[in-house]
């Protein structure tokens, strides 16, 4: 019964005129930028984060959540129409989605992606609402030692699920942890690693790293690609609705994708990405019906299943963030940054101290998903027109808006130069095959880990055995060690490399 009361409270908050407007703006902006090739949810949120500073906390988080789903939807549109995944989890959608578009079936492909995502989003929201309260109760049993061990597990999970080399992923996490140390030491009040630069005594701005590495880095990467390869289906999107036969094949695929995505989204690291790959693999293993198009040649199941898994994973990835305060992926790390900016400490206390924000955000997820269906299907023509604009005209506008956004956060030109520097670093990472997402997670979790480590050692009077003598903490550390051992096994290692090949 409590669940219904809580959801009623949430819908009461989300259905206010102001919050509905912000949710709508978030969905529209997210889709608008997400449609642009190469700019995924992380880069989109990083670019639009400064726009939420002046808003009330509830409205800001509702708008950011809208931007997140919008960018996800936009990514699938680009994948189907242009053969360019807008984000990493759309890599699988490209395979069959683009082939459907080539055969003049771009409409059903986009509808399958949209409807699958909507259903999965609704299920993911229900799971989040159902599990939130019990998990929050568990979270209150966590002390500093348990939190430290949980963050270790989160970072190891991020390494395991990061695409590319394990060594590079570990290196990125360590670099993120080191960047998180820059600034004033909480205990002694001494400036660390600031190199006598006054602007660095407060630490490196979260927005600076996110926007530089993801926003500017992606832009430089996109500029290095030739535009000649881009083929956009301008006048071919007709007959939006899938046929009865399409629906018959879609529904089981959507259900399987939703179940996989809901389970894998909770995992730290790249839950949504892993879910999309896993859902596609499951569909390929499922027997083809008579007269069905083979996979890789425009099978509608190859679009519906990964998109459902991806969206369900995105929803359930909010569970560890809202209940434990631990971001499982880069997007959630950005959400932590946004909460911190609005003086909200993410964790189990959010639900008890700020129930309006907690349940309002959950209710807005459902509203955001419904808005996207209503928005996206009629506006497909507009997105196609947007895709035909040459990138050389788009990128100066994006760079300018990002620079204005960064400057407006602290009214500081130093931040603008820092974003430029991190943009170059982000481009180097892409070229070196280093995934930047673990860096952002390390940067967010670094100060939290240090705080909990110090607190645990202070309470235990410097006794390091506190991390293994407490059962919950020891269990989490054992799980982290087991993950590392499993991923280094030769059989798992080769499978992992195979799974993350993106061509």
How would a crystallographer describe the biggest sheet?
A: 2 strands, antiparallel
Which structural category do the helix and sheet elements fall into? mainly alpha
Q: Can you count the helices?
A: 23
What is the terminal-to-terminal distance? 49 Å
Mean pLDDT: 81
Task: Bin the strand percentage.
Answer: under 5%
Backbone CA Rg: 22 Å
Task: Trace the largest sheet across and list its strands.
Answer: 1-2
The outline comes out as globular
SSE order: HHHHHHHHEEHHHHHHHHHHHHHHH
Fold topology:
Elements: H1 2-14, H2 17-34, H3 41-48, H4 57-82, H5 91-102, H6 106-139, H7 144-161, H8 166-181, E1 183-184, E2 191-192, H9 206-223, H10 244-264, H11 271-285, H12 301-316, H13 318-324, H14 330-341, H15 349-353, H16 355-376, H17 380-387, H18 391-410, H19 413-432, H20 437-459, H21 466-469, H22 471-488, H23 490-499
Helix pairs in contact: 1-16, 2-4, 2-16, 3-4, 3-9, 4-5, 4-6, 4-14, 4-16, 4-17, 5-6, 5-12, 6-10, 6-12, 6-13, 6-16, 7-8, 7-20, 7-22, 8-20, 9-18, 9-19, 10-11, 10-12, 11-12, 14-20, 18-19
């Amino acid at each position: 019964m409590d669940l219904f009361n809580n959801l009623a409270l949430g819908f009461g908050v989300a259905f206010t005129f102001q919050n509905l407007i912000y949710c709508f703006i978030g969905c529209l902006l997210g889709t608008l930028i997400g449609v642009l090739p190469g700019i995924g949810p992380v880069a989109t949120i990083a670019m639009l984060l400064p726009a939420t500073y002046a808003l009330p906390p509830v409205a800001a988080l509702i708008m950011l959540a809208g931007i997140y789903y919008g960018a996800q939807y936009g990514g699938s549109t680009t994948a189907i129409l242009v053969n360019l995944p807008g984000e990493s989890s759309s890599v699988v959608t490209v395979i069959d989605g683009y082939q459907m578009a080539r055969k003049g079936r771009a409409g059903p492909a986009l509808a399958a992606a949209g409807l699958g995502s909507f259903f999965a989003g609704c299920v993911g929201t229900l799971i989040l609402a159902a599990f939130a309260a019990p998990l929050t109760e568990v979270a209150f049993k966590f002390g500093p030692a348990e939190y430290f061990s949980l963050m270790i597990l989160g970072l190891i999970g991020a390494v395991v699920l990061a695409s590319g080399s394990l060594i590079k992923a570990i290196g990125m996490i360590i670099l993120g942890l080191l960047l998180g140390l820059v600034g004033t030491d909480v205990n002694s009040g001494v400036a660390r690693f600031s190199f006598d630069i006054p602007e660095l005594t407060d630490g490196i701005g979260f927005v600076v790293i996110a926007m530089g590495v993801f926003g500017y880095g992606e832009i430089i990467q996109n500029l290095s690609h030739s535009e000649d390869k881009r083929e956009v289906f301008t006048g071919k999107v007709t007959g939006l609705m899938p046929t009865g036969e399409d629906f018959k094949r879609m529904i089981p695929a959507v259900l399987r994708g939703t179940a996989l995505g809901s389970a894998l989204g909770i995992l730290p690291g790249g839950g949504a990405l892993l879910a999309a790959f896993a859902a596609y693999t499951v569909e390929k293993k499922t027997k083809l019906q008579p007269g069905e198009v083979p996979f890789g040649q425009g099978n509608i199941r190859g679009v519906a299943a990964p998109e459902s898994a991806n969206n369900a994973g995105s929803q359930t990835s909010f569970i560890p963030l809202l209940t434990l305060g631990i971001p499982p992926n880069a997007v959630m790390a950005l959400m932590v940054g946004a909460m911190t900016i609005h003086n909200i400490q993410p964790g189990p206390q959010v639900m008890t101290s700020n129930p309006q924000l907690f349940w309002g955000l959950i209710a807005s997820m459902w509203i955001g998903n419904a808005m996207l269906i209503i928005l996206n299907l009629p506006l497909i023509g507009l997105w196609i027109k947007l895709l035909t604009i040459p990138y050389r005209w788009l990128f100066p506008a994006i760079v300018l808006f990002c620079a204005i956004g960064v400057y407006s956060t602290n009214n500081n030109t130093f931040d603008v130069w820092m974003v430029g520097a991190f943009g170059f670093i982000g481009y180097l990472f892409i070229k070196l095959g280093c995934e930047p997402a673990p860096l952002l997670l390390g940067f967010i979790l670094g100060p939290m880990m240090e705080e909990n480590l110090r607190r645990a050692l202070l309470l235990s009077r410097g006794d390091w055995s506190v991390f293994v003598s407490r059962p919950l903490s020891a269990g989490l550390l054992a799980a982290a060690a087991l993950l590392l051992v499993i991923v280094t096994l030769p059989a798992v290692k080769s499978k992992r490399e195979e799974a993350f090949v993106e061509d």
